[in-house]
Write a structure and sequence with these properties.
Elements lengths: L22 H16 L4 H4 L24 H5 L2 H33 L8 H27 L8 H13 L2 H22 L7 H29 L4 H21 L4 H5 L4 H10 L1 H20 L5 H9 L4
The structure holds fe (ii) ion (2 copies).
One fe (ii) ion binds next to helix 5 and helix 8.
């Protein structure tokens, strides 16, 4: 007969201990998990998907339109402006879905075999669940607005495939942070925009709340991964993140949105490229990101040249 006091063998320790985990990082993840438990949304019930779209309401605040402030904008009818802004926001949402697919795979791969009892693991999976709901929410919003599927350029789509398969650590979380930061500033305006469609205001509000946690997590992960990193690794990460930013920012609004609004695509693109207002908006949306990159030694000369080309700096 077995003794009832016989010791149960303790579980085998994880063969793959996380080399970068710190108590500070664990604290951040724990706080983010608490916040997610208190304030998370289900877009399926939060948004009134059946409400008709008021014909005069914009897709995004006009000042966030790529053509705002140009000669072409002044020539456009009000109806063309409404159509353009709906296609612009739809294109940004579709790019958002594309990027959320990339980041879900990167985060999942990064967490492979990590301690399931750890707060970092649990928050990472919470983030993936958030992104899953976000992508479905953006898909529904595009369908509701009658916006077609704006796919990234073929070369860019392949580059995304490579990035999501190869990027890890600070490069993966850097790419994630770039996309989240740029979208965050725009969406803070969209969620309060006057005469902006309710589905855009609602989806933006949900995204801003949940993404603010993702950004804190990404910043913490980047700091942890770079702890003790040498100059070469930091320079490589800086360049890789900037290259990712270039692709994200130049893919956000598909050129076909101008055709959808009955405009000449060539002229529209030329006016967007020359627009001082557009450059100022891009710089505004990148301010926080640039400050964080500078603090962490990720704003090297080579990276700064790339950010300047797309007017993020
Ligand atoms: Fe998201
Ligand atoms: Fe996110």
């Amino acid at each position: 007969m077995a003794h009832s006091t016989e010791r149960i063998p303790s579980p085998v320790p994880s063969p793959v201990p996380s080399p970068v985990h710190t108590p500070a990082g664990d604290d951040v993840s724990k706080r983010l998990l608490d916040s997610a438990a208190v304030l998370s949304y289900d877009p399926a019930v939060e948004i009134d998907w059946d409400a008709p779209l008021p014909p005069g309401h914009y897709g995004l605040n006009p000042e966030w339109s790529t053509l705002y402030g140009t000669a072409l904008w002044a020539e456009m009818t009000e109806e063309q402006r409404v159509t353009l802004t709906r296609h612009e926001v739809g294109s940004i949402m579709t790019t958002g879905i594309w990027f959320e697919m990339i980041l879900q795979q990167m985060v999942l791969r990064d967490q492979y075999l990590k301690d399931p009892a750890g707060a970092e693991f649990r928050f990472a999976l919470t983030e993936i669940a958030d992104e899953c709901r976000h992508s479905i929410m953006f898909a529904r919003a595009c369908e509701k607005m009658g916006v077609p599927r704006y796919r990234p350029h073929r070369v860019v789509a392949h580059a995304g495939r490579a990035y999501k398969s190869l990027a890890r650590g600070e490069l993966a979380y850097g790419g994630i942070l770039v996309a989240e930061e740029v979208l965050d500033v725009m969406q803070r305006d969209w969620m309060r925009g006057e005469n902006v469609l309710d589905i855009v205001r609602g989806t933006s509000r949900i995204h801003v709340v949940e993404e603010s946690r993702h950004m804190k997590f990404a910043r913490q992960e980047i700091r942890e991964r770079l702890r003790g990193a040498g100059a070469l690794r930091r320079r490589n990460a800086a360049f890789g993140i900037a290259a990712g930013a270039y692709v994200i920012v130049t893919s956000m609004v598909h050129p076909s949105v101008y055709r959808a609004a009955g405009l000449d695509v060539g002229r529209a693109l030329a006016e967007v490229r020359a627009s001082g207002h557009r450059r100022a908006m891009m710089r505004t949306s990148s301010r926080h990101l640039m400050a964080f990159l500078a603090e962490n030694g990720l704003l090297t000369d080579a990276a700064a040249r790339i950010y300047r080309r797309v007017h993020m700096l």
